[in-house]
Each structure stands twice: as C-alpha cells, then as structure tokens.
Amino acid sequence: MSFPYPSGYAPTPGGYAPAPGGYAPAPGGYAPAPGYPPSGGMPQPAPAPPGLPYAAQPYPSAANYPPGNAFPGQGGMPMPDQSSGYPSAYPAYPSGGGAPYPPGDNSSYPPGANPPYSQGGMPYPSGANTSYPPGGGTPYPTGDFNPSAPAGSTAYPPQIGGSNTVAGGSPYPASGSTQNSGSPYPASSSAPYPTSNQPGSSTMSSGYPTAASSSTKSSTPPVKPQPTNSSATSAYSSQLKDGNLTSYYECAKKPGDSGLVKPLTSGFDPEADATQLKNCLKSSFLNETVIVNILPHRSNAQRQKIRLMYKTMYGKDLLQDLQDRLTGDFESVTVGLLMKPAEYDAYLIHRAIQGLGTDEDVLVEILCTRTNAQIQELGHQYRELYKATIEQHMQGDTSGHFMRMLISLSNGARQEDQGVNAQKAEDDAKKLYKAGAARLGTDESTFNSVFVSQSFEQLRAVFAAYQRLYKKDMEKVIKSEMSGDLEKGMKAIVRFTLDKHSYFANVLYKAMKGIGTDEKSLIRTLVSRSEIDLEQINRSFSNIKGESKPLSHWIKKETSGPFRDMLIHIIGGGH
C-alpha cells in the first residue's frame, strides 16, 4: 500500500495553523484510516427454510468483517466454532412405544433419548388414560424424579385413613374417588390429566387443576377469623342476636342516654315511603325536601324496612338510587342514615384506611368508643363487605405502637363486665407510673395493656388512683410521655372514659370552629350517635368552655341548603 503524501503532511490551502512546539513528525505520512464495513450493517444469514436445522445456514464469511486491526486496541474476536452447526430448531416427537411418555404422534413431550430428558424416573403418566399415574402402591408417582427427595420416596403425601386429606392439610384426592371438598385438583372420575396439551403446547387443557395453575391472584389478603374472647362473644351473641339493628345502638346506651332520632310510632308505612322516594328520584327536578321529611323521621330499623320494600317494589336498591342522584355532603349524610349502623361504621373505617392517606382520627374515634358487641358486629360487616379483616387492612396503613393499639381495640375484648377493683386500680396506676414518669423513655406496651383491656369504669378508677398518688391527671401524663397518632389515640380513650358526651360534643365543636367546616366529622358524629345519646351530647355542647350558643346555631351558621336541613332534622329528633 502506498501513501498519497510520501514527503510528510498533506498540503492544506492556507497552510497549517501554528502549533507551539511544532507538529509531531510523520515520516512517510499518517496511515490512512482502515476500511470499515459499509454503513448498511453486516449481512445477516438467510433464514432457514421451514423444518431445517440452523446448521444448514453457516455463519457469514469472515471476509465480510473488517480485519482485526481495524479497531483500536482490539486484535479481533475469534468466531465461534461452527463445525457442528446450530442445534436443531425443535426436537422430533416420539412415535410412541416403549418410552415412558404418553403415546401419540402429536405428543408435546420430547423423546426420552433427547437430552436433557431421560427415560429413567420421569413423572409422566403412562398413557393408560388413568386419572393418576401409578407408582409405589399409591395413586401417586414415586419421588425418584425429585432432586431433594431420597431415592424411592414418595413425592406426594400419602393418604391417611382412606380420607382425601393428609397430615398437614394437603387436599390430594384419592384416585378413582370423589374429589375432596376444597381441593384444587379435579376429581379423577371427571377430569383426568390431559394427554395432549402438555408443557410446550400452545393451549391449556381444561383437565389441568385450575387452582394451582392460575396466573392471577386476589389483591385482597385471605380472610382470617377475627380473634375473640368469651366475654366479647357472649356480649355479641346476647346483644346482637338475629341481626337486631336496634341492639347495635341499645348496647351502647348507658342509663339516662337518649337519642334524638326515634321510631315513628304511628302511621309508619314503608310502602308509602318507598313510593314517595321513588317518585322523587325519578323526577327530572329532584326535590330534596321529600328525602329530608322521611329519613331523619324514621329509626334506622324502619329505614331498613323502607329499603327492603323499595327493592321489593322496584327491583332496585334505594341506597344505590340515592347515590346516583345525590352529590356532596347531602349524599354523604343520606347514605349514612340509610346504611345499617354496623355497615356504616365498617364503611367509615374502610374509607379511613383505603382512602388517600389514612384518617387516623376516624379509626381512633370508632375503635376507641364502640362497645365489644359493636366492634364484633362491625368487624363481621367489614369482612362481608371488603373480604378482609380490619386488622389485615390496618397492618398495611399504620405502624408501630399506634397500629398495635388499634389492633388491640379491633378485637373487641375489653373486660366490660369487670367490676371496679380499687386495689387493682392502684396497682395499675403504679404500673403506669413505672412505665412512664419513673423511667427514661416510655414503655408504651404497658399503657396499651391497661388502656385497652380494662372496662371504662375500672379505667376511671385507675386514672383517679394515679391522680391521688402522683398529683397529675392522665391526659397530661399521655401528653408528656407520647406523641403523634399514639398520643391522639390514648387521649381519646382517656377523654371518652371520663365523659363520653363531652368527648363527642368537642368533636362537633372542633368540626365547626375556625376557618372551614369538617363536614365528615359532623356527619359521622350526628349519624352514629343519633339513636344512642345525641340528646346528652347536644346539651353537653352548650357546656363547652367559652361556648354559649347551642349546637343548632352552629349548624345553621356553618352549613347550608338541603344538607343543613337534614342535620337540623337529626338534632331536632325529626319530630
């Protein structure tokens, strides 16, 4: 190869730019750049004709690649040995005969002699059209094929006592017997294992077990029974037997408690109410007054009869029809009134957990203030509606000591029948002091164990004992020992324990005080306490320090339209 400029640098018009120190010598000139392959890319091998192995197509000639020294610092990569050609595109299929695989020219199993398969110990059925392959004296194959199992062992668990369930809970059905209930495997008499659509086939036979091979999983964790104790179960069964809606409210009442929404004692006609509501909802002009004049004037039990009659007459759910026509806060309060009380509490908890961010105030208010019977019933409703327990959902949205407190409360196992024991109250007060003020840091679990397990009457005795022994009220103790959501939850228990009516009055006051109105808290409190103790809460509202105006004044001031009318009817008792 000759160089175009043997005397050195190539000429350039106008000369070279000055270079301090001069240009490096280039005897004989710079070598020309070696030739790179065409920009169109390297030629690819032609596709193999159908049915031929890739070996029929050799690698492209090395002459088509640039020489090894064409790239800096690279001596050229050797091409792989291609003397034996590419492997076969797909193996031949067995023709049937002595191989331990199902016979048939279209079998999707590879032949036994074709690596990586072998003919020894493979767990394929023999093709005898039996439900399960034979082996080992049981209807299941031996486990020689299992690398982790010892030779001769059984890969499948043996049957016990002729039943179709083995130790450990594995539901393998017996060959030739009826499928065990709950088993994910098909019954042998109706769904033998397929002989054609095996792994490698383009379709999936219906003979495969569906439960084990499903590619989809439920996004909701499996439901586990909610823990209970005997006293909670007893309270639940005795106070809420037969789904008595009134009992959900009655079991929360204390002597002297009275709701402001009461049953319509004369002239109650669910058919007439359902007809009025239907006419209202189908009208192009929605008259909310019809709804206001009916729902808060009936007890929840009566509303359920209206809802049932509506569905009987029109084949539609009244709750769904109301949600389709109503909007905003008026819709929210109407839905709350029409739901069963436990259903409404479950709905509120689910919305608090699964909504945008976790509404800890709702979780605290409901779980800290409901009786065991109420918590048991709302837990049942929650599982029915959302296919999971409250505990399962809370574990994904809360954490730490606050989560543990909520889980403890969600069990509904407070010792409600516990009589007041003065000595135990003093002992628990000392225990709380040692867990908090008497040490560096706080033992939150001790506070949790006392606050959640003892009856409200016993807790009042504990708080009084602490005040007597250490000259500090319990709310201030909580404030100095805790923070965040845990502090909020523990304070709620203290305040509800000391005066439940004042607790809810303050929830209402905070919902309307200051800039803006917390309509959710307003609706939740008025609806959930409407048939329990709203009369006492209404009176307690006027006793809040620095407040002289009644609850009705604040509602009229902070709300408007049909929403305001509905709330006024609720606190007016609807009569």
Relevant terms:
single chain, 575 residues, mainly alpha, 0% strand, extended, disordered N terminus
3D architecture notes:
The protein is an all-alpha fold and 575 residues long. Helices cover 42% and strands 0% of the residues. It has helices at 210-213, 230-239, 245-250, 270-282, 288-294, 300-314, 318-325, 328-338, 341-354, 360-369, 372-386, 390-397, 400-410, 422-435, 444-453, 456-470, 474-481, 484-498, 500-512, 519-528, 534-541, 551-558, 561-571. Helix 8 packs parallel to helix 20 (519-528), helix 17 (474-481) runs antiparallel to helix 18 and helix 22 (551-558) runs antiparallel to helix 23 (561-571). The N and C termini lie far apart (113 Å).
